## 1
Amino acid sequence: MTLLSRQDIDFLLHDWLGVADLVDRDTADAILDLSEKAAARDFLPHYKLADRQQPELVDGAVHILPAIGDALKSCADLGLFGAGFAEEIGGFGLPHVLCSASFAWFAAASIATSAYPMLTAANARLLTTFGTAAQVDAFARPQIAGRWFGTMCLSEPQAGSSLADVATQARAEGEDALGPRYRLTGSKMWISGGDQDVSANIVHLVLAKIVGADGKLPEGTEGLSLFIVPKLLPDGGRNDIVVAGLNHKMGYRGTSNCLLSFGEMGGATGWLVGAPGQGLRQMFHMMNEARISVGLGAAALGYRAFLLSTTYARERLQGRAAGQRGGAPVAIIEHPDVQRMLLSQKAYAEGALALCLYCAKLVDEAGDADKAALLSLLTPIAKTWPSEYGLAANDIAIQIHGGYGYTQDFDVEQLYRDNRLNPIHEGTTGVQGTDLLGRKILGADNRGLDILRREIAHAAAATGEFAVFGEALAAAWQEVEAAIDAARAMDPGAWLHHATPFLWAFGHVVLAWQWLSQAQAAARHGDERFAFGKAQACRHFFTSELPKVAPWLAPMQRGDAGAPARTDYF
């Protein structure tokens, strides 16, 4: 089974993104070859079985499908858990963009299994960024090697995404070689990989509030601190962490998802990362990496569904060609409506993958302040647009398969269920809209926006066959600018009402820019069929998707106040 298009990935990395300044072609090819083969060999075979045999909680321990453990051990043996880390701490020193392309193969094969190494790498990267040398040696290195797995523990049952309401407490207990030591009590909800039986240990990164000298907790997010709370302590003893329950989900079923209780027997031991009160800033380092990875996983699921749809449409014989009476049935790919759906899938799936790899390259270039600012601005788009439109590609896949697509005999129904979580994962679409408009635009110095504005203007100057697309892009960007100007004149209650439609529109303009750039690069590629496909997807996006921008933004531009304050009419 073809999971992704290797030709497209090679094009994106080498012809479009120009990663030669980051990694040589032979190394890139070797990693991609390895990833493609390992994903098909180790991850894909248990894809459907992991969906049927969900994690189980037995006598306080979570048991997951053994095949998942076997696949992850193989991945660790290949060194892919820590491929993006420096060689001196056990990695390969590969650029993030290549690691992201590698990850896409595994996500396409089994998104639930790939969640474990994704979270583990993000956990270890946070520790190597903010932890002490002792903490890196004790807790990051085993994760880089793939022997231990990692989690991020933010949400709580009563708080959800409102992290200011986190109630988990940390009480100072002293200090040792690993840093200031605390006792934590509280509960954490929706913890992916919160417990399982395939890794030697689990490193939880836990947001909590330090109890003050007056016995009170600090208020707001400024009072959040970050703690390393391992399942097993350095002496091998069990930490005071209990699995209080498992969440059984619509999709992603191979990933254990837990309600964890810390401190039922007096307090779970944890070590402070960095300084008190810096927890949310530190955790955002992990969250932002995870957000791009979530978008990448969503793109991979949409891409696999697109390829499955294309294969099915070529093989399924049904009906006659337009204007034809009698004769043998034709493949449904000959029907105009199926062609329209496939073109939408192509625009969504290939566009989403391109966006995520573009942002992954920005991670590698984040030492440049301009690149870092652009990455910060685009992160909500990289998380949300693939999550929404990768899912749209999955939805279309079911439609193309017809009644068969709605059965468990074909993979497309599970791909849809798996992908439906991604618009919620790592901050819902609404959270990302508020982050984009509120923090990244209205509340920022606009450095990232200025850089994007220049990129859009450069692309809009396209000539020849692409000139018409450049003009459309410039017009759409003016709609965005007008909406931003309107938002600056609104009070928060009003612009918050429009934040999600603004996110949709902003994301579509970003994708139009990237589709135009892809089509131009493909025209220089040398493969006529490939270039034709990119040009048609670009044309489709500009004619069928970009026109949605103006209606999405119109209420905001008019200054509509949004829904009335009262809520009793719902």
## 2
Amino acid sequence: MDSPLALYRRYRPETFAQVIGQDHVTGPLRNALRHDRVNHAYLFSGPRGCGKTTSARILARSLNCAQAPVADPCGECDSCRELATGGSGSIDVIEIDAASHGGVDDARDLREKAFFAPVRDRYKIYIIDEAHMVSPQGFNALLKLVEEPPAHLRFIFATTEPEKVLPTIRSRTHHYPFRLIPPRMLSDHLSQLCESEGVAIEPAALPLVVRAGGGSARDTLSVLDQLMGGAGQDGVTHELATALLGFTPDTLLDEVIDAFAAADGAAVFGVVDKVVETGQDPRRFTEDLLRRLRDLVVVAAVPDAPVTGLIDVPRDQGERLTAQAARFGAHDLSRAADLVAAGLTEMRGATAPRLLLELICARVLLPGADHTTDGVLARLDRLEKRASIVGTGPTTGATTAEAPMPAPRARPEPEPVVQQAAPPQPASEPAESERVGERPAAPAATPAEAVVEAVVEAVGGPSGGLSLVDVRRLWPDIVEATKLRRRVAWMHLTQNSQVLALEGRTLTLGFTSAGARDSFVGGGCDEILRQAAIDVVGADWKVEAIVDPGAQPTPAPTVVRPATGRPPDPTPAPEAPERQAPTEAPDWARDEQAPVAPRSTAPTAPARTHDPESVAAAREAILATRTPGAEAAGEDPRRLADAAAHPDDPDADTNGLAGTELLQRTLGAQVIEEIPHT
């Protein structure tokens, strides 16, 4: 028993009406045949498997049909039956493969035989496939014959590279360029073939078959034939197509896209590890990821793209794409697609594709480190998402084109100098040089900063739509982000400060002491806090620090360190000596919004008497500061010990200062002299 023909041979078109996706070619050819205005030479060009040779055979059948001139062959005469699929072939229709018969001797032999009249049919037709393989000498030998052929002779050249055909030959032919078949049309064609073959196929598998075929009808049918041969009782399933064709499973793509949306680096690199461990090609994964990002970009611009067929995906996957696109901003998606596309280009020929894939993922995860226009716009997308979370400001449509561009203005820069103590000033009128938050003006804002300010105003006001309640709710995340940048800033925020107010773009922090305030500002920690706020909530605040003895710092949440995995020490930190509150709080201490003059380190009030218990507690605190590795006043010794264990932290360097000197310079503390008593 003979094996059945391949699928692309069994379903090869036999009329121009059966050729799909080439109406721009088949229509004019049918009109020329119907009116008997056929040229003596044709050139069919286009990608492989798009119907060039098949159309040449159909044209030959129509020319030699007993009912000619007709637009389509009748299929009943001897010539039509001989040239049909599975036919014996006609002696008057000669097919030549120029890849093996393209020399000058082959051309001379063809020229000698061409002058003989056809045996039975109306025309002697030469179909020269892969015509670009004919040598220049062979074309020159055919030139005179193609230019002035006998009346019974017709030429049909088929090629994938028409530019390689000799221009003198090409100028004497009618050129018809073929195209790749549109995916939607090819998908419908495959569904009809599967129904004719009696094989079930899942709708989710059809796009994979079409994609593997690349728009070529022959290649697509070959892929479908392979899947049909390996199909089980359930037919051609999506799982089978994914495994045999080597595509990335949708679950992995969904997982990595969700991780990008949540900025979850651990999940992203976990997916990369799965790709490598399961034996998949990192290049194919990157290509599939780029295609998914392309679909998300289209869905973000056209929300009903899956429904209208603009994206050829099943209904359930279309719903997933819509939900995923809603978690990104348009600029964020565009930036991610650009990074993946550039990385895919670098992967070609690379010896370490996994390393390049991980670098691509790292770039996508860090828009805050990208100072280009795309990086700025990606951060603005985060700001818009944050505004939609708190329920104020527009959630969509707030783009740089719609936002008014404000005039550039100066931005305060951190001043890495510890402010010197000055003579005491009245609390109601602080000295001009000691006003908290005042710094020299910097040059005008850059265009990127101006764009940020413009979009901030368009999204939800100067503060990005955040209220004081929202800031306090998000404060733990912001403080935790400062820990990744500078540990000292995190220690100040968790031990010595509290959020007091948010007015416009100014965030006011209250510190328990002037020394803590001066150390925070002088060390540039306010700039660290500003950058952390941009990364976490998308708000660019000006941080103003004031002294507020009544501030109650929010301690950092207790977590297990990922480096060692050991649980936190359950032993409570030693309590600092209680401060004796002043008999009457000044006006500036009661008003949380008023600027406050820093407290002078020199004593301004007469010495007060202390009871024996307070003196004993003070003595213990002083002795603790004089021992190696002693903690700063009011700070957790376990945290200082942890900081000392990291010598790469530049902020943990004490420059060899003793405990007392470190307290005085860093926190502005006063050393209580021991009072003799009986």
## 3
Amino acid sequence: MERWVMLRKGADFAGIGKKFQISPRLACLIRNRDVVGEEAIGQYLNGTIGDLCDGMLMKDMDKAVEILREKLEEGKRLRVIGDYDIDGVNATYILLEGLKRLGADADYDIPDRMTDGYGLNIHLVQRAYDDGVDTVLTCDNGIAAAEEIAFGKDMGMTVIVTDHHEVPFEEWGGKKQYLLPPADAVVDPKRPDCEYPFPHLCGAAVAYKLMEALWESMGRDSEDLDDLIENVAIATVGDVMDLKGENRIFVKEGLQMLERTRNPGLRSLIECTGLADKTISAYHIGFVLGPCLNASGRLDTAKRALRLLEAKTRKEADQLAWDLKALNDSRKEMTEKAVKEAELMVEASALKEDRVLVIYLPDCHESLAGIVAGRIRERYYKPAFVLTNASEGLKGSGRSIEAYSMYEELSRCKDLLMRFGGHRQAAGLSMKRENLESFRKMINDHCTLTPQDLTEKVVIDMEMPFSCVTEGLIRELALLEPFGKGNTKPVFAARNVRLMDMRVMGRKKNVLKMRAVDANGNTVEAVYFGDVENLSGRKDTLLSITYYPTLNEYMGQATPQIVITHYQTA
């Protein structure tokens, strides 16, 4: 059973509507997204690239720019070291493009997920030194690589860190002592001494800010880097950043650029995934394009995704795009198999009674453990850890629910773990094989989650009769896009709804089309994706539903309809 919660946030909706030429209903939805004050509302509705803050406000940005200017003038060899996920790959590409367009002698390296692990390591630093690299420039990593950076410095290299992760700290006498790495410049908006107004950027956005600042310091027009905003947008959505403030502007602008992209690799990927004639949304980045770019870092090497972004010819771009799509199709099949195996394990054992699920899948590819844990978390609405075999015992990932801090709970079991890290919602861990059952018992013994915590919360923006589902409203809702984490699609509700004329559609028989009639007798076309068998059995039952209005465009005709997202007996 889900907990349905109605948002009730007050404001002068009529006044806001009048000032910004929007309906009071839209003003209410904007307030529900915690956008408060005329300046914030104005930026939310009309923000452009011109509203982004100056990157030079970031701590150490001036140092990083000055060092890079000197290195460029001296013709020194530079190496960008990124990371293997979608943010790291796009950040690497942004730095490479920005530097090469200035004539820099620059190349890149990216760690291998399986052999190197995350971020900078001694092996990568040594390789840079052996290759005659003068300056290492990190992106999407480096803030926690103090030892590796010290190693590079001892060998005479210059190191610049650009990152967006939390700065490591130790607690002394109840106070946090932050531990910055010994790099020549550390650009990270999460530094406690950084006064940049919006610290929630992804690694690619920080990289873009650095290149923008460098170009301007060299008397070049930074607008010539605008095409790289599409890479910032891909990374922001792919790394699941909150779509607020500057992130929202980057994604909004980047999506428009993506539809007419001049990047041959992205153009080929858009075509081979069937998006060529579609309006590209944040959803398409999150669930179509992004997984293809991430698949290379999971199952092969992230360098393949970077080669796609760097492709210069149509032939090369097409080949790489189809390779990445095939890799992602393979990743999807492997994921589905692992999810089914995990569900069977839970259903057929005492695991189902646990409040924290610890699932051992010996044959699951270790790079898929986090995806599988996320799917299991969704299915059971419980924190879930998925562990698989690794070279040294077991390795895995966890995904959490709102009321459970994964990192804190792992800290309480640290004596059973070899390594762990992460944050409230997600974590990675490794342990000796013989500690598996002890870990499962301890993590559950420490668990304080209540039955209410383990009940999924459905947050509703407002009750709205079907008579309000008009083409005008639906087109106005588009002003709230792009949707994603931190700026979710509005959720509307209606009570005492009767569903009529149900018919199952779709190749996989997982779509239900019908007419929905509300308590006032208003009728609207409706569609539902999911467990259609269960809903189709409610034909003569009065239901409460949550829904989102859309336009069904067919043969040039646009008809309002609703997508039902949740339902329960009224």
## 4
Amino acid sequence: MSDYLVIVESPAKAKTIERYLGKKYKVKASMGHVIDLPRSQTGVDVDNGFQPKYITIRGKGPVLKELKTAAKKAKKVYLAADPDREGEAIAWHLAHSLDVDTSSDCRVVFNEITKDAIKDSFKTPRAINMDLVDAQQARRILDRLVGYNISPILWKKVKKGLSAGRVQSVAVRLIIDRENEIKAFIPEEYWTIDGQFLKGTEQFNASFHSLINHEKHELKSEQDVESILREMKGNTFKVISVSKKERKRNPAPPFTTSSLQQEAARKLNFRAKKTMMLAQQLYEGIELGKEGIVGLITYMRTDSTRISEVAQKEAAEYITSEYGAQFLRNEPQKEKKQANTQDAHEAVRPSSTFRDPNSLKEFLSRDQLRLYKLIWERFLASQMAQAVMDTMSVDLQNGKAVFRATGSKVKFPGFMKLYVEGSDDQVDETNKMLPDLNEGDEVFKKDIEPKQHFTQPPPRYTEARLVKTLEELGIGRPSTYAPTLDTIQKRGYVALDNKRFVPTELGEIVHESMVEFFPEIVNAEFTAKLEQGLDNIEDGKLHWVQLIDEFYKEFKISLDKAEQEMQKVEIKDEPAGEDCENCGSPMVFKLGRYGKFMACSNFPECRNTKPIVKEIGVTCPTCKEGTIVERKSKKKRIFYGCSRYPECDFISWDKPLPRPCPKCDGLLVEKKLKKGVQVQCVSCDYKEEQQS
């Protein structure tokens, strides 16, 4: 018989911890929550202080029975669920189910699954933190009150199977508001004048900046450009000012949950859900041969960039040994805390800096290794010295026109030797050097090229941009980002088009009803205020019932009004313009979970359905009979195939173009690159200039 029983959430974690603790400890997994609100009803008694009705989750009876049996045999039970609000709530539910005194030293928390961290945590067990439990309980009850009261109204008035939620409703609103901004956007014309110049044999670029003795001069029309060109005489420009500066660049801080999801999207092309799944695996432990199962990163749900002294010292030792003392940061970088940061535990970092990515290649899957490498490099770079850049700005004059050239070079790479943070609008400024220029020098104009441009609408949200915006607005918390993005897609409220969110017709219909009858639920400021209230509960500054009571008073008025006044929305079936090949009845467009599709109007007698085929105006290059249509794979990735499939099996991931290759008459396609697209021929080496 084991002296001590330790209960964690996952079997993988249980194996690792049991090995570290030794024979006196038996470690079992609860497999997440064992107790929760019932799925078949709201489960909240609004007339009795919002008391929740907790039940054993269906299917978890055998797990709970096994834990009870093990608890009776043990001298002491330790509850070691994850170190966050949800983990605290799981521990609290288990304590009540297993007759463990919640005020006893039964709760153990650790930020990383390493031998030292586990053993240290068992030296300082504590009581269950009821403020944390109450904060999680309040969130759960709030979400249940919103979801289980609004959803049935949407079922009756709009369509069965719909749902509403606090955070998801705001996320959908952000996407719809952005789409409306794009539709309302009116492009404005502007021009640039770019030039190529020579100093001796060295070529460099400069752009029109201003008229002499004037501030920067905007070019809004072709007439503006022509007036500037008239000011210029001949091909010689004089250098009228040279500014040389040294600029220091700080490394990015180590990852939070949000920044990890954003950077994994930019650099690894990972969805938020995938990033969190892989991070969970790295945290819970990976089999490393003779070492056994080892937790490779710290807890991945955090909003803090704080780093422990032990981790800082380890990083300093590694950096000094691998790169030299000059690459080590001299003083700690000041941590910038946002107002809504909980700072419950450290940043996401490797559990050991000395476990570098190359040493783990044989043990990790490709994607696990890529994510670990990203986390390892980001953390190590955050502990490295600033990069030093030599920058140079030069003004060239001809007549009254002033052109400006800028350049920079890396004087000392510092952290950039290892890692540079990604950006949605990345500009490489490290290899843009100018010739040695001094005031009074003359340079030769090689070419001048005026270009017409139009201002662009704001970009649609990618997953990374949306996570960043939600975080900035104080909406949701680290554990909610990935599930929220997943939910709004599963409900069919939004879809991804070229990795950017677009609202669906269903999403816009539901959103209109929400804005009219539940404006607070879709209001970002109101939702952020609720999040702050939950934080206040966690800090012991507010009782959870008070927060919910204040919310529910106004919410109940909105519910009653919606029940009585919300008009039933009839989503009419639009004729598709063709007949069903099975029964001859007209086909209609239906609105489903994943957008529109075609279905037989004779449903349910005939259940024929077809995807909506989008032709792109290109004849199939293989069979010469069919046309190329846009299709979607099972993973929702767009590809192009012949309309005569399966008779003709032509497919292409790249979009075919309706014009032939001018070199060989072959098929031209649009090849998507990291930044923009390029037209290429599939049969020869013909390529056109890349478009952004």
